[in-house]
Amino acid sequence: GVNERTFIAVKPDGVQRRLVGEIVRRFEKKGFKLVALKLVMASEELLKEHYWHLRNRPFYNRLVRDMSSGPIVAMVWQGLDVIKTGRKMMGETSPSDSMPATIRGDNGVEVRRNAIHGSDSVESAHREISLWFQETELSSWDVCSTNWIYS
Ligand code: DAT
Ligand code: MG
C-alpha cells in the first residue's frame, strides 16, 4: 500500500562516486516520500547482521569489509509498492546485468561496486529499517503533492 516503507542505502562506493544526489533525486522524482536519512560509518557488527543471510557465501567477509570502508547514506523511503519499485529502479545485483536507465545499469560495471542497497521484501524491509534506525529517527510528514501523485 501507500504506507509501505523500504530501506535504501548508498554504499561507500556510491558515496565516493558522488551518486548520493542522483540516487535521492530518482526516488524523489518517482514520487516517494523521504522518511529518514543519515550518513553513517557502519560497524562490522551491524553489517554482519544486515547481510546475515549471506554468511555462508564466499564473498561475505569481503562484502562486510567493503561496506565498512567508508560512510554510507542510509535512508527510508515510503510509497505505493516502494519495495518492488525500488528494486526495479536499482536494476540487477550485477551492474553488467542491469538495464540502462536503472541506477546500477547507469553507474557501474562490477558486482562489488554496485552503489546501492535496497530491501527485497516486506520482511527484510522491516528488519533492515529497525536495524539501521531508531523509531525516533523516522519522520511522519505530509507531502503537499500527495493528491497529484495518488488519486
Ligand atoms: P542485492 O544487493 O541485489 O540485493 P544480494 O542481496 O544477493 O544482492 O547480495 C548483497 C550484495 O552482495 C550485493 O549487492 C553485492 C554482493 N554480492 C552479491 N553477489 C556477489 C558475488 N557473486 N560476488 C561478490 N559480491 C557479491
Ligand atoms: Mg539483497
TrEMBL record:
Annotated active site: H117
Enzyme Commission numbers on file: 2.7.4.6
Cofactor requirements of the protein: Mg(2+)
SUPFAM superfamilies linked to this entry: Nucleoside diphosphate kinase, NDK (SSF54919)
Pfam family name, one: NDK
Keywords per UniProt: ATP-binding, Cell cycle, Cell projection, Cytoplasm, Kinase, Magnesium, Metal-binding, Nucleotide-binding, Nucleus, Signal, Transferase
Catalysed reactions listed for this entry: a ribonucleoside 5'-diphosphate + ATP = a ribonucleoside 5'-triphosphate + ADP; a 2'-deoxyribonucleoside 5'-diphosphate + ATP = a 2'-deoxyribonucleoside 5'-triphosphate + ADP
GO MF entries: ATP binding; metal ion binding; nucleoside diphosphate kinase activity
Function: Major role in the synthesis of nucleoside triphosphates other than ATP.
Name this polypeptide is given: Nucleoside diphosphate kinase
